[in-house]
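If your schedule permits, I should be very grateful for your opinion on a structural question. I would ask you to consider whether the tokens describe a fold that such a sequence might reasonably adopt. Thank you for your consideration; the sequence and its tokens are set out here.
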Amino acid sequence: MNSIKNHLPEVNTLGLYRMPWSFSDNPFSWLEPTRNCDLSCEYCYQEHNPRSYKTVAEFESDLKGLLKLRKCDAINIAGGEPLIHPDILDIVALVKSHGLKPVLITNGNRLTKEFARDLKAAGAYGFTFHVDSLQNRPGWEGKDEKELNELRQYFADMIFEEGGLVCGFNTTIVPSMLHQVGNVIKWTISNNDRVATNMIIPVRQVPKDDCLEYYAGSQKLDADQTVYAGRYDYRPITAMELYREALKVVPDFTFNSYLGGTMVPNAPKWLFANIIASRQKIYGYLGPKGMEIIQNGFHLIKGGYISYLRPEIYQHAKLLLPLAAFDKGLRKAFGRYLLSILTNPLRIFKKLTFQTIIIMQPQDFLENGEQDMCDGCPNRTYINGRLVSECRGEDYIKHGRMIQAVRKVESVCYVEA
């Protein structure tokens, strides 16, 4: 592990803009109409329950309960797999009726062009497709991340052809696929005319280490019996390892903002990069000041933080030009763009895109057993009257509280953070 650390890039998060998102005022929230799923991901932290389908009335009750506790712009409708819910069209329409942006977090297994059109008509704002190598997806077993770009392309093209929808991806990375992160990022940027976002998420499990004991309140738990243990023992990949892979394919890859940890405030839990590019060339990146103006300007005007832009805005990055007066990153990007126009004036008619790539470092177990979660977590969900992190939802469903780790006094150990 030390040899890995010695060759990692560094990001000073304190030099980035800290996203102002909070527990009660956030662009995003997360609700699940079912915890059942039609795939079986090896690292999934949910117990698939075929009896977990909520009625539309039950979903509405959760939505109203959430909105009493949290202001948000978009609802991620997730699962499980939301598209297998028989009333998903009504659920999407319900979220839309509350003035929110319904975005479906889906594996896409059930999505057809006709179904996408129906969901759009019901009010869907967009789709975030979860595609990666350990989903045991029929017809794609054994495929690596580079090979799965073909499937990502299929979904991206489908949504692009339908039009009027935001298209994004979530990509979970296990250690054996770390070397292919660059392939995913290259594919994402090459599709900047149709892919708005890609979130690169390193897999997380409870550490299988004799130095830690796990408790729900006073009840001692066997870590192997929790859904977080998984079938395999994956080491915790860090955000800097993912960043190193990004730099291999995009040498000037640059972040502008971040979310820190609940225990380690400068931990790079969410790192945001916003790329200004044409179909052929990256011109630069939105900087910290630009992101600060966008977030606080939207909050000032609309009373809340922005989640997704309108789909067509992602294809008109030139609208950001006025912010270049305040943002060094944008000045550099538009300066490069203007120089390129001098060499080829026809480029002035080409579109510039605005694309977001997020690199994550989810919950970490610290040496003493404390858990460093995402401060300002966008993926809070509503369970039994409480807002909880969706990645720990099983804790609250089964135990009514988050599972805690305690370091054994007599043990000497080190858990990578």
